[in-house]
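TASK: fixed-backbone design
INPUT:
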């Protein structure tokens, strides 16, 4: 085995970025925030590459480093018992070039409700310019963890006597919503109906007629939304809509109601599905509580 001495080291640059500080004065549009976050990371990577280039130019000795020539294998002659060595090679010292692509790592702090972007897609922009395009960005929530740890220590030591609404503090800083929050928002909007089918607190008959939810229930639309987002079921919403419309048509045909009573029957059928959903959820909760009580008794 021929051993080669290590004469150069690949540059390794770390940069820390806190999006809460960098994008504090940015717009609250989630799409704009995500785009600005990627632009900020791109700018930092470009700065790292520029620093490496400047270092090479200012230190020409780093570009090429003299090294002793590698030792060659020693050939032995079994017939004469004399070792023939090629160590006395008087050729010029070899030149070793500095690795062209540096190692760059961005540690991005997402504290404050910021969402991560695709690190693989981001790294593809710098293929051939950095040595680690696949793990160029590393996301963390260090600031939130530090604040939570400090709060827990303060509460345990009795230094903090004022209750703090941590959820409210985080919500005020958030620039995007996750899947659970979107579903909760949709359910809250769709469920904000009074018993007559009009939006509570509206008072405008025109908007009340537009905002009526007569055919579908909030749980049905919310469930289809979760299927669409979580399982990437692109036909989930359409399938639920077609299924509910088919059930409603069968219900009206079975009732053989006249045209004047179609709308009241549709509203009544929708209300009955809401009540049955509530009953089924109550039964499920009761079963879970019974199983939990039984487990505690057996334990």
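OUTPUT:
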């Amino acid at each position: 085995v021929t051993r080669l001495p290590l004469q150069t080291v690949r540059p390794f640059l770390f940069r820390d970025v806190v999006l809460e500080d960098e994008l504090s004065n940015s717009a609250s549009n989630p799409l704009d925030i995500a785009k600005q976050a990627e632009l900020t990371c791109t700018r930092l990577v470009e700065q790292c590459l520029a620093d490496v280039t400047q270092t090479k130019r200012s230190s020409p000795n780093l570009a090429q480093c003299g090294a002793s020539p590698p030792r060659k294998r020693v050939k032995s002659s079994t017939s004469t018992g004399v070792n023939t060595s090629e160590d006395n090679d008087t050729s010029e010292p070899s030149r070793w070039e500095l690795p062209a692509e540096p190692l760059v790592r961005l540690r991005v702090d997402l504290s404050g409700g910021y969402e991560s972007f695709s690190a693989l897609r981001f790294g593809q922009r710098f293929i051939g310019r950095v040595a680690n395009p696949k793990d160029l960005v590393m996301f963390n929530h260090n600031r939130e963890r530090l604040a939570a740890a400090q709060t827990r220590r303060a509460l345990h030591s009795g230094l903090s006597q004022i209750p703090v609404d941590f959820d409210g503090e985080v919500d005020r800083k958030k620039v995007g919503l996750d899947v659970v929050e979107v579903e909760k928002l949709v359910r809250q909007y769709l469920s904000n109906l009074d018993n007559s089918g009009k939006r509570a607190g509206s008072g405008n008959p025109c908007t009340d007629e537009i905002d009526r939810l007569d055919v579908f229930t909030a749980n049905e639309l919310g469930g289809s939304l979760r299927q669409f987002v979580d399982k990437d079921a692109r036909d989930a919403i359409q399938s639920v809509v077609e299924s509910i419309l088919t059930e409603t048509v069968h219900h009206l045909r079975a009732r053989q109601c006249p045209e004047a009573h179609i709308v009241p029957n549709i509203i009544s059928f929708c209300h009955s599905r809401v009540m049955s959903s509530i009953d089924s959820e109550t039964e499920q909760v009761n079963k879970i509580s019974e199983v939990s009580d039984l487990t505690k008794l057996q334990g």
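COMMENT: The first strand starts at residue 12 and ends at 18.
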